[in-house]
Amino acid sequence: MARTTGIVAAIVLGAALNVVADFAADFQAAKTLFDKGQYQEAGQTFSNLAASAPNAHGKAWSLSYAAMALGRQKQYDQALELAKTIEGKPMAAYTQMAIMDANQRHKELAAAFKDEDIAAWPDPINYKGFFLRGVARSVAGDKQASLKDFEQCVRLAGSDAELKLDALNRLAALCHDLGDDAKAMSTYETAFALYEQEPRWRGRWLYPQALLAAARLLMAQGKYDEAKATLAKFSVKASQADRGPWDFLVLEAYGDIFAAQGKPADARAKYQEAAAIKTHESYVARVEKKIEELGKK
To answer: First and final CA of the chain: distance in angstroms?
Structure first.
């Protein structure tokens, strides 16, 4: 979703400051409702804001969120129809894509916007458009086209670290799927460099996801020490009670590396540590099976 500050900055152009201040406050309040999942109230507020917006920018963004709010309420057809009324083709197209994505209409999105010139869209939405189409193309099975979209997203994302990191993870996974593990690793390394610059993002799920994927790539190449060093960047919680799914997956990955090294005792210890975590039953069943298989060797 668009950053509210960026939206307001665009609205300031050509509008009286006092009008913008009132609109910005109301827009932020409506955006807060949207982010909290209060879509009916948010949608009505955005519809009202569209009627009183200080300029075309404010009206377009208000209609965009009003349409997306309808989409989140499963009023799919009405949401798309409202999105099509937005003045300016890029914003109208972006809003339709966001609605389709939220409603899991990925194949429909990929087909409808396959020829869309997203590179010509304005900066606040172009990289988001590439991301949405990249996701849709990936789901639809067009991995090469998806890869190109994610590359464009990364290139254009600027200071939006969260979406850039998400795009980098998806891009690396696609490179692996397409047999280019060297590019996959370099893409993960780009992500890790970004985490070094902005450590606060390490608290998000994207970080352990990248670490695990990179470690498994290294393990497949027989680079066991490098794989373990990569996993070591994630701090497994000291307290058993505080551990969750990501702690489990990291411990399981350690076990897999030790097993691949021919160190069954070390592998079993990591698997048992993982199995003690209260998490998804399927996860626990998986490592218990690995423990059982170690006993047969």
So the answer is: 51
Q: How confident is the model at residue 140 (pLDDT cuts 50, 70, 90)?
A: very high
Residue 2 confidence (pLDDT)? 42
Average pLDDT over residues 147-158: 97
Q: DSSP letters along 158-217, please? A: TT-HHHHHHHHHHHHHHHHHTT-HHHHHHHHHHHHHHHHH-GGGGGSTHHHHHHHHHHHH
On whether residue 209 sits in a domain, the answer given is no
* Cα-based distances in Å from 278 to 242, 253, 274, 285: 10, 17, 9, 12
Q: Of the candidates 129, 209, 201, which has an alpha carbon nearest to the alpha carbon of residue 172? A: 209
- Domain housing 20: 1-103
Q: Are 86 and 67 in contact (CB under 8 A)?
A: yes
Q: How far apart are CA 148 and CA 51, in angstroms?
A: 38
Q: Is residue 183 part of a domain?
A: no
Q: What is the pLDDT of residue 12?
A: 46
The verdict on residue 167 lying in a domain is no
pLDDT digits (tens, 9 = 90+) for 187-207: 999 999 999 999 999 999 999
Q: How many domains does the chain have?
A: 2
The answer to whether residue 3 scores a pLDDT higher than 80 is no
Contact 134, 167 (CB under 8 A): yes
List alpha helices for 55-180, DSSP H: 56-72, 76-83, 89-102, 106-112, 123-140, 143-156, 161-177
CB 276 within 8 A of CB 284: no
Summarize the confidence of residues 59-68 as an average pLDDT: 97
Please state the pTM of the whole predicted model. 0.90
List Cβ neighbours of 11 (8 Å cut-off, separation of 6 or more): 20, 23, 24, 53, 54, 55, 57, 58, 61
Report residue 10 as tokens.
Answer: 């665009």
